[in-house]
Amino acid sequence: MTAITESVDLDRRGRIAVLTVNNPPVNALSQHVRQGLRDGVRAANADTSVDAIVLACAGRTFIAGADISEFGKPPREPGLHEVLDLIERGPKPVVAAIHGTALGGGLEVALACHWRVAVKSARVGFPEVKLGLLPGALGTQRLPRVAGVEKALQMIVSGDPITADDALKHGVIDEIVDGDLTAAAVAFAEKVVREKSPLRKIRDLDEKVAAARGKPEIFANFRKSVARQTRGFRAPENCIKAIEAAVNLPFDEGVKRERELFVELLNSPESKAQRYFFFAEREAAKIPDVPADTPAKDIKKAGVIGAGTMGGGIAMNFANAGIPVTVVEVTKEALDRGLAVVRKNYEISASRGRFTAADVEKRMGLITGTTDWNAVKDADIVIEAVFEEMPVKKEVFARLDGIAKPDAVLATNTSTLDVNEIASATKRPESVIGTHFFSPANVMRLLENVRGAKSSKTAIATAMAVGRRIGKVPVLVGVCYGFVGNRMLHQRGLQAEKLILEGALPHQVDKVLTDFGFPMGPFAMSDLAGLDVGWRIRKGRGTKSPVADRICELGRFGQKTGGGYYTYESGDRKPIPDNEVEKIIVDVATSMGITRRPIADEEILQRLLYPMVNEGAKILEEKIAIRASDIDVIWVYGYGWPVYRGGPMFWADQIGLKSLRDRMLEWKKQSGDDFWTPAPRLARLADQGKGFLDK
Ligand SMILES: NC(=O)c1ccc[n+]([C@@H]2O[C@H](COP(=O)([O-])OP(=O)(O)OC[C@H]3O[C@@H](n4cnc5c(N)ncnc54)[C@H](O)[C@@H]3O)[C@@H](O)[C@H]2O)c1
């Protein structure tokens, strides 16, 4: 065996050269891998005792993509294009041997080979679109030539990998093999040599792209089918254009077009934001004083207290991850009601083809409902999701303290209450932590884990690890009212209310935010959540929200009553602006002595989002969030902030904090309202010409 570079070896099996990439953990295409492939292929091609080449990978996967640590650095030779060209144009057959995942540049390497064999568990795909890019090493030109245009569109624009079976069916791979992969690939190569098969260079294949030539409707229909999920993103359209080029241009021209489209994306603000966010999400897993090797409790069994809206959804997360979970309720009726909702949710998923009827039973089988608290005595984590009232929460925790295992993690799903006070109801506050799920809890990816003053490192590490295990994106935050997400949302809500009194209407405010990229605006969101909840809380506290109160007095609680800020036609969730609501708004404004005026969309956007950024600055100053990028992760996963705008803190940095601060000061002068006082951190960074994310 010869080492070509530190990560690529050249070996021989008879007359077949085996090039093996060994660049743990995922065999990323680092410079030394590219060089090793280039030099290894050159050496094998020059060696007259070699008939063919097998390209394989050591470890758990085939090449799973680019080396992200090289992102943003000057390119280093050799480039991937050069390596792929050398593989494809060489005189000897090259067979890729795929296991694990062949992703991005990895799949592009495989497609430059003349044949591809894979194990059954392998998966292949082009995830570039998720970073706002396209597969720019000829992936958009080669894939449609083997898989056909429809499959290539679907794979490249979704970014989702496909299974080996699917890849075989669509010609992306040539054979699924059993047993030792390298041996099978060598046998495949020997067969190709024996049969003197002409080299299958994908660049020369035309049949599948020709089938789509002169049929622009294929692309028009595809664009229509993805319009909703790709709204606001730039990369999907460029991916489609690149595949159109594969259909309509000769290979080398298509390659040039792919390059142009790639460079355009690389320099786009959308991709910049998406690449930033990719790292932000990974960063959120890191907690400075709780290192990655901090032992987390292995969760073999979970408990949930309360089978309401949140409890049921939380229990589903555990069942979905294969973890048995016991749900405790006060009464049999509440329990049955809660579990019936869970079953119904599963059945809806099954009816949409997401899983089978057997899966519904399997998951339901992992959820045990009871009114007997002793049933959680062997749970490794217990999550409380009962009414949002401090005395109730404290009673629950005092009771859990007497029942749960000594080393169990005791978690609360409170959205507003003080986790430290809840913890004080136990004799083990170090085991208590907040796990703030978002509604619907079985769907929303965000998990705000709330660190109490006494939460132990084990409790923190466990909450983070279990969050990931159940498919969430956990972000650690500190104790304060509303934590990070809702605390910032509250600021936005205050301005939304003011804006409608000063002259805007709910649908104008909402449209500004949906045009920005949010799935819905604050008023449509209130209608969805139900206006009665806030109304009841305000009545209890003796506070007012003049417009919302008047709307509620009419029995308009939102979608569930057919009207709130908007009107809804029965069975339809589409918000329709309502004259009656407009009249209420105008009346209230008049009664408050406000002269309504037309408000420009730009002002609406800034007045909604700048206060959020300002609150984010306070949150950072108070160390409620560990880092600015964590706030962005919270907003993207919990509140639908468009990922192609990075998140509020990234977005603010792009605008420039000085411009933000100055605008706030102008409004402060105009209104005399201290609401617009820039937070000290915002003011300081603006003075220094820096951003939240600058190191
Ligand atoms: N609904 C949301 O959008 C949302 C989002 C995040 C967090 N939360 C928080 O989650 C918690 C639960 O909210 P929800 O919306 O699911 O409320 P819910 O009213 O739908 O459910 C609460 C359930 O807890 C049960 N319960 C009450 N006291 C109990 C006790 N002592 N023992 C066992 N069960 C008890 C009730 O019977 C009820 O079924 C609250 O703390 C809330 O603030 C809610």
| Total DSSP helices | 29
Looking at the overall shape, the CATH architecture of the largest domain is Alpha-Beta Complex
CATH superfamily annotation of the largest domain: 2-enoyl-CoA Hydratase, Chain A, domain 1
Proportion of β residues?
A: 5-15%
Spatial sequence of strands, sheet with the most strands: 13-12-11-14-15-16-17-18
Low-confidence stretches: none
Largest sheet: 8 strands, mixed
- Give the % helix: 40-55%
CATH topology of the largest domain: 2-enoyl-CoA Hydratase, Chain A, domain 1
Structural domain count: 4
Shape: globular
Structural class: alpha/beta
CATH class of the largest domain: Alpha Beta
Describe the structure concisely.
This protein has four domains: 2-266, 2-enoyl-CoA Hydratase, Chain A, domain 1 (Alpha-Beta Complex), CATH 3.90.226.10; 302-481, Rossmann fold, CATH 3.40.50.720; 486-591, N-(1-d-carboxylethyl)-l-norvaline Dehydrogenase, domain 2; 601-688, N-(1-d-carboxylethyl)-l-norvaline Dehydrogenase, domain 2 (Orthogonal Bundle), CATH 1.10.1040.50. It contains 29 helices and 20 strands.
Write the layout of secondary structure elements.
Elements: E1 2-5, E2 8-13, E3 16-21, H1 31-46, E4 52-57, H2 80-89, E5 94-98, E6 101-103, H3 105-112, E7 115-119, E8 123-125, H4 139-147, H5 149-158, E9 162-163, H6 164-169, E10 175-177, H7 181-194, H8 207-210, H9 216-230, H10 235-248, H11 251-266, H12 269-283, E11 302-305, H13 309-320, E12 325-328, H14 332-351, H15 357-366, E13 367-370, E14 381-384, H16 390-403, E15 409-412, H17 419-423, E16 432-437, E17 446-451, H18 457-469, E18 473-478, H19 485-502, H20 506-516, H21 522-529, H22 531-541, H23 546-553, E19 566-567, E20 576-577, H24 579-591, H25 601-621, H26 628-639, H27 648-655, H28 657-671, H29 680-688
Parallel strand pairs: 3-4, 4-5, 5-7, 6-8, 7-10, 11-12, 11-14, 12-13, 14-15, 15-16, 17-18
Antiparallel strand pairs: 1-2, 2-3, 8-9, 16-17, 19-20
Helix pairs in contact: 1-2, 2-3, 4-5, 4-10, 5-10, 10-11, 12-26, 13-14, 13-15, 14-15, 19-25, 20-25, 23-24, 28-29
